[in-house]
């Protein structure tokens, strides 16, 4: 098995090998490196553009995720069905039908939040691709009664933010993000939360969101599965680079250096990099911050942690339990992002299925001690209904929702692209067979139009894409659950999936398929 593809050539960095598939498997270099080649591969391009080639391109227009083929992933587990009985509904063939499956779930401790579907869009921060599609994502999440988190750096990246005495007092960008979710929120299910990193905390972003914008849910951020450093974005003007350095960010190269300014103006490089600082987790300061947020009025506090080493996962679990947090999101390596160093995305961190296996052990230990176990969201590459079922089952009963990012964003972007084309009378060829209008092309548009009435005309078209995508996920998940005879999420258990290899069984804490039901089968046969 090849664990890492495209070592020296990948679509992410717009590089390729001159010899095609004939590359050295461990270095990724062409088997014959030719003197005279213009440098199409990552090594060659790096000799021309240097550190620029660290990142997926083009920045602000794509999301990216690992190409690495991990030794074990969720495809190494299968969902188990049964021909016997039903849980959560009467065992009657006329009643135990998949539309009867209840997909509602709940997160929170004292302050409970209902979700109509077990989905939370993990933080969408200040990168262009997130900012330009926020209204579509937020409306889609609100209309489906699901969760969405406003990510880091939104305030400090806001060109029109007002900062007084080192604290945010007004941010049109954050205000718009919060209000856009509220506009389409049904008042009963779903939530939006405001996340904070090191810079956000210094600026008092969450206090501003709570006190001025009426936000009730906030999220502490330790990291994500895509990288083990702070967030990055690229800046294409000197003015913007100077502005963000003045707000406390690390900006490279230094925009205040006269030599750098001269080089930029001469066209020697076209973009600056803005980097966030890494956090320094400390148990005492963690609990202090939780208390500060509660004192400020936060009713719902979550923690998002990344694919750090096992000891850090143990810290996240322990601290979240001790602080009685409302939600813990664990993000495994291999997930997607707007801009992370490409090699880091492939070669850093604990992959999702491995980190979930560890997570289950740690949560079991807490439960055995009689300690509080926070509702868990597992994230890191989940996109379709089978992934969701497996994520819910592997750590049952602790996982209450599945975290997603790239796939809802894809649904929003495609919905926006196709919907905008339809509105302008240019229906893409792929979809002309369905018709010429939004209602004909988008299968769920008629349902939304009936639900929203005249407001449907004001709905961003990408939201129709998100809504339709979620409808597909819901129906697919209901079908899997019906086959397993589990008619509500609370009935899903770990033996609803089986490991296809002994290695997968050991990692996931799930029974090997050849050992599954062994005792019951023996009893039946005897």
Description:
This protein has 526 residues and is α/β, with parallel strands linked by helices. The protein has three domains: 1-54, no CATH class; 66-229 and 280-526, Aldolase class I (TIM Barrel, Alpha-Beta Barrel), CATH 3.20.20; 232-275, no CATH class. 37% of the residues lie in helices and 14% in strands. It contains 19 helices and 19 strands. It has helices at 42-49, 128-131, 134-143, 172-184, 198-203, 205-213, 238-246, 258-265, 283-296, 310-322, 342-347, 352-368, 385-394, 406-423, 438-441, 445-452, 461-483, 502-508, 518-525, and strands at residues 64-65, 77-79, 105-107, 113-115, 119-124, 147-150, 162-164, 167-170, 191-196, 217-221, 232-235, 250-252, 272-275, 300-305, 327-331, 336-337, 376-379, 399-404, 497-499. Strands 5-6-9-10-14-15-17-18 form an eight-stranded parallel beta barrel, surrounded by eight helices. The chain has a three-stranded antiparallel sheet with strand order 11-13-12, covered by helices on one side. A two-stranded antiparallel sheet has the order 1-16. α3 (134-143) packs parallel to α4 (172-184), α10 crosses α12 (352-368) and α14 crosses α17. The radius of gyration is 24 Å and the shape is globular. The model has no long low-confidence stretch (mean pLDDT 94).
